[in-house]
Design goal:
Blueprint lengths: L1 H23 L5 H25 L1 H21 L3 H5 L8 H41 L7 H25 L2 H38 L3 H30 L12 H26 L14 H7 L1 H38 L7 H28 L11 H30 L3 H8 L11 H10 L1 H19 L9 H19 L2 H33 L15 H7 L8 E5 L15 E5 L3 H6 L9 H7 L9 E7 L2 E6 H4 L5 E7 L3 H13 L4 E2 L10 E2 L1 H9 L9 E3 L2 E3 L2 H10 L8 E10 L4 E4 L2 H7 L10
Parallel strand pairs: 6-7
Antiparallel strand pairs: 1-2, 1-5, 2-3, 3-4, 5-10, 8-9, 10-11
Helix pairs in contact: 1-2, 2-3, 3-8, 5-6, 5-7, 5-9, 6-7, 9-18, 10-11, 11-12, 11-13, 11-17, 12-13, 13-15, 13-16, 13-17, 15-18, 16-17, 23-24
Length: 765
């Protein structure tokens, strides 16, 4: 009887193991997994006992199916893990790649988890051995509490250390890492065993596909019989409704989710490491400076060079002090709303201040590089004086730069609008990108900060020992450096916190940049989609009408254009979607004094070029490719309707406006349509940046949540000024479209006013 019970129990266990994959497919957690396995084993035993009593033939058939399945599986040499446990691996060779990735990449967080838990584990293990030596095999509740206290106490000490040394954000990040890696380490080795078993068996099965197919068929037959018996038992014994036919979820979906999560985790880790990596100080030259050679070759000339640079540092200090005051007032005005980055004059004032800082920063970095290696091997009696004053000059430049960098960081790191503007480059001003980021990088460069800390100790020693000359400009440099010391010493603290914050922000930037990299391609592709083409992609404005326009157009004319049938018309506000600026010819620009302006001269050679069809450039506009030159034939000639508006300005004001317009050439297109960011422009913003300082352009409207100007707003500006004695804009020509006739026709001012109420979806007249 005992043998029979044992055999029945073994049979039920075996059936449970095979049928357990049904439950595993639901993705239960480990605790639910164990609980339901026990319940399933009990249910299977009850079911088998019922059928042995009521329908023994069913049990006999079930045993026959089980024997056949096990026999075929053993003959094929397949591990039960491969057949009776979910692998959550991709099919074929992709599963091998996924398995290797999971093992290799999972080793990193596992190693971190093991290292963090090694000390308390060893302590708990030592305590356990002491208990065992005393003859106690099972730990009591108080002893288990002691083991738990070892782990909790150790982790609490670690967290306290991080909290004391770093920021709150770093502490939270450490706690998350601690929990995640410790939990991950517990499951990693089990997952590795599963992967190894499945990969090994899967590789072997490639050479015996027929045998594997027969095993799978036998397994499906066995599980199908179990499904049938289960439902019959539910109805006859338990009185429950039968379960629906089981549909096993595809393992591919779960595997793909795992691969996606791994890819995201790896990408996030790499982005964090890239952001955390020490960044070089942008603008600080590398390599040895010529200073030691200069001192050896001609000490007197070197002294004069040093004297000039020392005075330059003092002047830079005065200018930076003044800029600091102006920047504080300006930033407060922007934050309070008294000024706006949408206003061109306010934007210009901010850019002028930023450009001055960039130039002074470059000069101070050059001075630091020049004299940081200032120990010439020279027997000259003046070498010591030169050495001390060269060090003082270099240190004064470094401390001044660090002081201002710290003040910028300290004042504006929690003001995202100011921070963003400081980081934006501007081709029109010659301001490089990422100025604020370079400032933060300099304050998180541990190597540079360590060198500065050593130099600070030396400065304080030399100052106390009166090693610096007590004459102009050295005494002023020493005083200037003393003023910078409090800010410099603040910058030495919290480097880890700043680095962590920088890494997080760099991750955000990289994610945003990834999205930004896709946006132009998608936007340009969509914007070029046209419901109706007109080969060879011309508009309704005819070549004859272009010939009529050419002699009446003047530099500075605003071109408001519409091209029918483009999908972009559906998303841009108003009937008129596009604006451009007519520049005319080089001679016309020269007559206005534009061509020799420093902002314009670099673009003149390109302006005298031609488009792909051999037409001369005459227009500047912002399109998907950026702010570019184009021809009248390409811009107006491909339009279906066009309005020409002329600002009523003096030649001097018009020349200044065109210089501003040309300075923007080469900037990217702003796919965010954000008028607060001058580094990229949209078509209507180019016109706005050109004329805002000298024309009274109406206040921007809120379009899609942002303050913007649409092309129709310039038409409205003209319409509103018709009754004025001094209109700002004059109507030069208006060609409206006639889709029915397939032509553009000259129209009047009244019709132009009516276009302001036309729907942008109107194609036919």
């Amino acid at each position: 009887m005992k043998d029979q019970d044992s055999t029945a129990h073994s049979f039920a266990e075996r059936i449970t193991e095979i049928y357990w994959l049904r439950v595993k497919d639901t993705g239960l957690g480990e605790a639910q997994d164990r609980a339901m396995l026990g319940e399933l084993r009990e249910r299977v035993s009850q079911c088998i006992e019922h059928f042995e009593a009521e329908a023994p033939d069913e049990v006999t058939e079930l045993k026959r199916d089980l024997d056949r399945y096990d026999r075929l599986r053993k003959a094929a040499g397949l591990n039960r893990r491969l057949l009776e446990q979910p692998s959550r691996l991709l099919p074929g060779v992709l599963g091998h790649i996924q398995g290797i990735l999971e093992i290799v990449l999972g080793a990193i967080p596992t190693l971190i988890g093991l290292l963090l838990g090694l000390v308390p584990y060893l302590l708990a293990r030592a305590y356990g051995k002491c208990i065992q030596k005393s003859g106690i095999q099972d730990l009591t509740r108080p002893q288990l509490l002691i083991v738990a206290t070892i782990f909790v106490g150790y982790y609490a000490l670690l967290i306290s250390f991080v909290a004391k040394t770093y920021s709150d954000q770093a502490t939270i990040a450490f706690i998350v890492i601690l929990i995640v890696t410790s939990a991950f380490a517990l499951t990693y080795f089990k997952r590795v065993r599963t992967i190894v078993a499945h990969i090994g068996d899967r590789t072997a099965s490639w050479f015996k596909l027929g045998a594997v197919a027969r095993v799978r068929q036998a397994q499906d037959q066995l599980v199908g019989r179990l499904d049938k018996m289960r439902n019959q038992y539910r109805q006859e014994v338990l009185g429950w409704a039968p379960l629906k036919k089981h549909s096993r979820p595809k393992a591919t979906r779960a595997a793909l989710i795992r691969v996606l999560l791994i890819a995201l985790a790896v990408a996030g880790g790499l982005m964090f490491l890239e952001g955390y990596r020490e960044k070089p100080i942008q603008g600080l030259r590398v390599g040895p400076s010529p200073w030691p050679t200069m001192v050896k070759a001609n000490p007197e000339q070197a002294r004069q060079h040093l004297l000039r640079d020392a005075r330059g540092v003092l002047i830079a200090g005065q200018q930076l002090d003044e800029m600091q005051k102006r920047m504080a007032v300006l930033a407060d005005d922007f934050q309070s709303g008294r000024r706006s980055f949408l206003e061109q004059n306010d934007q210009d004032e901010f850019r002028a201040l930023l450009l001055a800082y960039v130039d002074l920063r470059a000069m101070l970095l050059k001075t630091i590089w020049m004299y940081r290696d200032n120990a010439p091997e020279s027997p000259a009696t003046t070498a010591d004086d030169i050495r001390h004053t060269a060090f003082l000059t270099s240190y004064s430049a470094a401390s001044l730069l660090t002081e201002k960098a710290w003040l910028i960081y300290d004042n504006y790191h929690d003001q995202p609008d100011i921070r963003r503007q400081l980081d934006l480059g501007d081709l029109a001003w010659g301001i490089p990108d990422h100025t604020y980021s370079h400032i933060v990088n300099s304050l998180t460069n541990r190597t540079a900060m360590a060198e500065l800390q050593i130099a600070t100790h030396r400065f304080e020693r030399d100052l106390a020992a009166n090693r610096f000359p007590q004459e102009t400009p050295w005494i002023q440099l020493a005083e200037r450096s003393k003023r910078s010391l409090p800010s410099v010493k603040k910058a030495f603290a919290g480097i880890g916190t700043r680095t962590l914050n920088r890494a997080v922000k760099e991750m955000q930037k990289q994610i945003e940049n990834s999205a930004d990299a896709v946006t132009p391609t998608v936007s340009v592709t969509v914007s070029r989609f046209r419901f109706k083409e007109r080969p060879p992609h011309r508009g309704l404005v005819s070549p004859a009408q272009l010939d009529e326009l050419r002699p009446i157009l003047k530099p500075g004319d605003i071109l408001i254009e519409r091209r029918n049938w483009y999908i972009s018309n559906c998303v841009l506000p108003g009937f008129w979607p596009h604006a451009a600026l007519y520049l005319g010819s080089r001679d016309q620009l020269a007559a206005l004094g534009v061509t020799e302006d420093p902002r314009v001269a670099p673009h003149m050679a390109d302006f005298q070029g031609q488009d792909a069809n051999g037409h001369d450039y005459a227009i500047i506009e912002a399109v998907g490719e950026g702010v570019i030159f184009t021809s009248l034939e390409r811009s107006v000639g491909e339009s279906d309707a066009v309005v020409i508006l002329r600002p009523t300005l003096s030649d001097s004001d018009l020349g200044e406006a065109l210089c501003r317009a040309l300075s923007h050439r080469g900037k990217g297109y702003d796919f965010d349509f954000d008028f607060e960011t001058p580094d990229r422009l949209v078509c209507t913003e180019l016109v706005y940046r050109t004329y805002a300082p000298i024309l009274d352009i109406p206040e921007m409207r809120t379009i899609a949540g942002k303050k913007r100007i649409a092309a129709s707003d310039y038409v409205r500006m003209w319409a509103d000024g018709q009754e004025s004695d001094t209109p700002q804009l004059k109507l030069i020509r208006f060609y409206d479209f006639d889709e029915g006739q397939g032509i553009a026709v000259e129209s009047d001012a009244k019709t132009l006013v009516e276009t302001l109420e036309r729907s942008r979806f109107t194609y036919m007249k």
